[in-house]
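Appendix C: a fully annotated inverse folding record. The material below is reproduced so that readers can follow the format used throughout the book. The structure is listed first as tokens, followed by the designed sequence.
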């Protein structure tokens, strides 16, 4: 099974749902129980479930709607499958595929069609680079969420240092990831445009694939290796996730420092 979502986006969806559930639970459930002096019995080791049970009972006795109760259980139901998705991804049953940045130009006179060009694909690692902003936002929001009761209170030293650690870590991650990936991208684009890139043409030989991880092959003695899990500006789309490389495929490759900057395949 394949889902057209990158790993950072998939993670962000779960993170947003968890935060949304905490906000709804506090504003709708915890406040209602507190304002109406409703006792919460410990039927389960999970406090939120105990509060939901008490909330449902109290609302039904007052003949009031259970909109928030249904909403929270719906979010938990979605989060359950979100967690199952992580296990399926780790086991290789589920594929999280970043939307393709392939070009699809018409074949030239020799029959070659460009399927990847680093300049045309653009800088495509925004999700990875900006992933750290989640921690920055979380660090700034954590004190307010604690005061509101959305996040349970922790020891004083944790309340003091955790937000700072989140902000510093997120800022350093974002700065380092953005700088590193963008500089790599610009170097590859410059190498392609100023003629530094070498060109090799021939058939794909000694093709080898490690499912969900990487693939490698030779073209006229030049070896290539890449992986969907390695963040580079060059071509790294394996056949396992829909890439075009196959044994015996006629290709023309522009490469520099081991990265494929432009990939053409012969459609004839």
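Designed amino acids, in order:
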């Amino acid at each position: 099974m394949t889902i057209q979502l990158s790993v950072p986006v998939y993670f962000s969806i779960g993170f947003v749902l968890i935060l949304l559930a905490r906000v709804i639970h506090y504003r709708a459930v915890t406040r209602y129980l507190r304002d109406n002096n409703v006792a919460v019995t410990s039927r389960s080791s999970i406090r939120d479930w105990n509060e939901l049970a008490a909330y449902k009972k109290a609302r039904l006795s007052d003949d009031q709607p259970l909109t928030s109760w249904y909403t929270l259980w719906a979010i938990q139901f979605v989060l359950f499958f979100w967690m199952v998705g992580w296990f399926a991804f780790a086991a290789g049953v589920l594929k999280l595929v970043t939307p393709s940045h392939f070009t699809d130009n018409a074949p030239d006179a020799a029959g070659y069609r460009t399927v990847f060009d680093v300049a045309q694909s653009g800088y495509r690692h925004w999700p990875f680079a900006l992933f750290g902003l989640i921690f920055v936002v979380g660090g700034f929001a954590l004190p307010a969420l604690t005061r509101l009761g959305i996040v349970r209170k922790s020891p004083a030293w944790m309340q003091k240092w955790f937000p700072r650690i989140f902000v510093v870590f997120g800022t350093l991650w974002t700065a380092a990831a953005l700088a590193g990936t963008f500089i790599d991208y610009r170097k590859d684009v410059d190498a392609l445009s100023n003629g530094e890139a070498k060109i090799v043409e021939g058939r794909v030989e000694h093709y080898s694939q490690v499912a969900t991880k990487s693939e490698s092959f030779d073209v006229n003695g030049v070896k290539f290796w890449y992986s969907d899990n390695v963040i580079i500006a060059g071509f790294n789309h394996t056949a396992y996730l829909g890439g075009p490389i196959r044994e015996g495929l006629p290709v023309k490759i522009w490469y520099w420092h081991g990265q494929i900057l432009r990939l053409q395949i012969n459609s004839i």
